[in-house]
Amino acid sequence: MVVTTDDIETVAVIGAGEMGRGIGAVAALAGYDVVINDIDKDQLAEAHDQIEWSYGKSVESDAITQTAADDALNRVSFTTEFETAVGNADFITEAAVEQQSVKEDIFADLDEAAPSTAILATNTSGLNITRLAEVTDRPGQVLGTHWFNPPMLMDLVEVVMTEHTPDRVVDTAEALVEDFGKTPIRCQKDVPSFIVNRLMRPYGEEPAWMVYRGEHSMEAIDSAMKFSEGFPMGPFELADYTGAIQLRVEGAEDHLEDERPLSYETDVCPLLYQLYDKGRYGRKTDAGYYDYSDRDEPEISVDTGQAFDPLLVWAPIVNEAAKMVQHDVASVEDVDTGAKLGGNWPQGPFEKADEVGADAILSRLTDVASRHESTNKVAETLPCELLVQKAKHNELFYE
What domains can you pick out in the chain, each with its CATH number? Predict the structure, then answer.
């Protein structure tokens, strides 16, 4: 027997870092008793202070009342004792360091210590959830709940199934997310990077190849995507902000060894290795694609990108989105919702495809793929069957 939404009273969070304490704060504010566990007492003390601070900011902005903040904070407890944290929990979210082996050890311990009815969730942004499920004796009660940072402010949560997860368990998790005041989208298969980060990958990578081949400048691409298309940041500015250069290079081997559906088998753009070898990881090192030694933000003018065709960036994104729908990873609606709420994009990839026509996307994508003939990336950029059929029959993704 597994808990249903009506049964859930106590939520436990493993890990008191930025994500863990944020998830706990949201759950407590929604009326749940919350226990946050960490092996580090100082981390727990900081988590308490940060939750109190975030509630205070919400009170200042009139998002909640002081009474609601006080009541929520009183519902949160903190402990270094693992068994105490999870022993009476109905729903447990692991939010520890993003390392597969560490998370597998935690899930093995959770399986021993948590009630047999409890649902076990992980906040990973793309690690193998199936392997986490299979270290337990309750694989059907394990799933992903990928929150976006900061949890108090970001509206989206990706709820990720594995082949072991029955619909009733994911339905319960989605209903809980909604009760938290957040918007769930369903990732129906455990694929690398799930939904939103799969869209972010071509947004950053195809522009890097264009610059590496000398076809366009960083400034032109960033200008076009930011000012013409309405993205919060262009792909290079965003990569520097998130530290994507380091993450992509250091994570390349892990992706190649990933046996899940739709795993990546493509070359990393040599431009990223060149920057990585120079220690240019982004803003945190004062240099990435751009130099930040004497400025906080890159200088990108509105006019620089007027000659650049944004569909060259959109096309691989739409193709990746169409692959997810074709392979039953996610629905059209959930992909677009994820892009807008998780990435703060001005519109979803399918909304863009319907706006310009699938034939226009297919034309640009064919051009992009032809430029990758000497790399492993050509297979990734070839148009998927669903996109080809939409273009052939002049069909919309939203009928």
Answer: 5-187 (3.40.50.720), 204-305 (1.10.1040.10), 311-392 (1.10.1040.10)
